[in-house]
UniProtKB/TrEMBL annotation:
The keyword Membrane is assigned to this record: no
The family this protein is said to belong to: Belongs to the ATP-dependent AMP-binding enzyme family.
UniProt key word Ribonucleoprotein: no
Domain AMP-dependent synthetase/ligase: 22-292
Domain of life assignment: Bacteria
Gene Ontology MF terms: CoA-ligase activity
Coiled-coil region: none
Alphabetical UniProt keywords: Ligase
Source organism of this protein record: Acetobacter aceti NBRC 14818
InterPro entries xrefs: AMP-dep_synth/lig_dom, ANL_N_sf
The protein, known as: AMP-dependent synthetase/ligase domain-containing protein
């Protein structure tokens, strides 16, 4: 792999279009079908026409639905509010404090209790042969507000600007798309969490990576997504889900790399995952404020012959 040069990270050379290279395949769906960037743009434009002129709290859990709604919100000139706390009380706080609207798309698994005033829109349809507008988004345009968990006090909001998200996606290629051919990203984490937002949603929009969609509740769901995609496969997950995958003892196609975050990863779990799944495990440290920082788990390999 040829490392990206420093010039690739400057705003003047980054592609600030809403969807990078829209003629490529971007998503693979549970029924085996695929969506291109133009399909994504068509769905986003159609959804944008139905949105109010207000910030959006996305209740979508499926990464395809979430990405469509994220881009539709940008097309509408608004931003999305991302909170890992999905309780009705917290969602209503966001609505009240930001004059926002909760939005869910049909076909989504509903959260336990939809907040009052939730807007339920038709499932996004990306069919067609036209090439819809793919606007260039200003580098300093605020497109998302991400909130900390509030575990040490009140949740704190951090604005995410379009250009910074694009640059972070490019920089992350060495971790998430390290091969000569485009990687397939399979995520077991939700897109409304900063971890999933960066590694799945932003990678799908800003890079050449393909992202698998579908249910993510159980190891059998992850096995299905792995089976729908092609190598090189990168599994985006957490230590808890890695442990569940090992315990399920399922046959899975080759996994090039496992990326883990959101909780401390023990050396024993990393080693067992590598040995059982014949892969390489990498841990990410990060925070809502600054995003993700790579830290490969290589300590146990240093003394190998």
């Amino acid at each position: 792999m040829t490392p990206a040069s420093a010039s690739d990270f400057w705003p003047e050379t980054a592609d600030l279009s809403l969807v990078f290279s829209p003629d490529r395949t971007v998503f693979r769906h549970p029924d085996g079908t695929a969506s291109t960037g133009y399909d994504l743009l068509r769905a986003a434009h159609r959804t944008a026409a139905l949105l109010p002129d207000a910030p959006i709290v996305s209740l979508c859990q499926d990464v395809w639905h979430f990405t469509v709604l994220f881009l539709a919100t940008i097309l509408r000139g608004q931003s999305v509010l991302l909170s890992s706390d999905r309780t009705p009380e917290r969602l209503l706080q966001l609505v009240a404090s930001h004059s926002a609207v909760c939005v869910m798309l049909e076909g989504e698994t509903a959260i336990e209790e939809l907040p009052v005033g939730t807007l339920v829109l038709p499932a996004p349809d990306g069919s067609g042969t036209d090439q819809p507008d793919n606007p260039v988004i200003p580098f300093d345009r605020e497109v998302a507000t991400v909130f900390t968990s509030g575990s040490t006090g009140q949740p704190v909001a951090y604005a995410k600007k379009w250009g910074a998200l694009v640059i972070r996606s490019i920089v992350a290629r060495e971790l998430l798309d390290p091969e000569e051919t485009a990687s397939s990203l399979i995520g077991t984490v939700p897109p409304y969490h900063m971890y999933g937002f960066e590694t799945l949603v932003c990678q799908a929009v800003h890079t050449r990576s393909l992202v698998a969609t579908g249910p993510t509740a159980y190891p059998a769901d992850w096995q299905k997504m792995l089976g729908l995609t092609t190598t090189p496969r990168i599994l985006i997950t957490t230590p808890l889900q890695m442990r569940a995958l090992l315990q399920a003892d399922l046959d899975t196609p080759p996994i090039t790399r496992i990326v883990s975050a959101a909780a401390p990863l023990s050396e024993d779990l990393a080693r067992r995952s590598e040995e059982t799944l014949h892969t390489v495990v990498t841990e990410i440290y990060g925070a809502t404020e600054i995003g993700s920082i790579e830290l490969p788990r290589v300590l146990w390999r240093q003394n190998d012959p």
